[in-house]
Input
Amino acid sequence: MWVVVSVIRVLLAVLALRSNRWAYVAFMMLGLLYFPLRVNFRFDPHPCELVFGAPLAIYSLTNFPHIVLFALGYILTAAQFQLTKWSSFLWSAGLILFFGALVEILEGVTGQGHCRARDLIPDAAGALIGALIVLALYRIGWRPRPRWSGL
Output
């Protein structure tokens, strides 16, 4: 079943990169549903780690899966905006960090994974890398044209 879900997510990501908003929304919702599906909706809440120091913050930057996934998430989010002003970059960053906070909350509620506030640091690093990639793509001529329908 997880192979099918992974294939669907890849297809949705490709469509979202082509600025299809319905595919973007479905991709993000499926990403959030991953945690409850993983535990068959049997929630086992655990407290979230909210306090951390500088050494743990620096150590959290070694969480490469978060960095890569949130860079991809930023790119897909940026594809949903016209990118005519800096505000679209800020909206993309805000949305992807909000998504990161939701992921951490779901990890705490489901007991699947570790709910840690410091995981927002690699999420932000991924968003920054994603923004740099979007700027590079924009420089070579990529212009997203967001729409709700069409392939």
About this structure: The chain has a mean pLDDT of 88. The chain has one domain: 2-139. The chain has six helices and no strands.
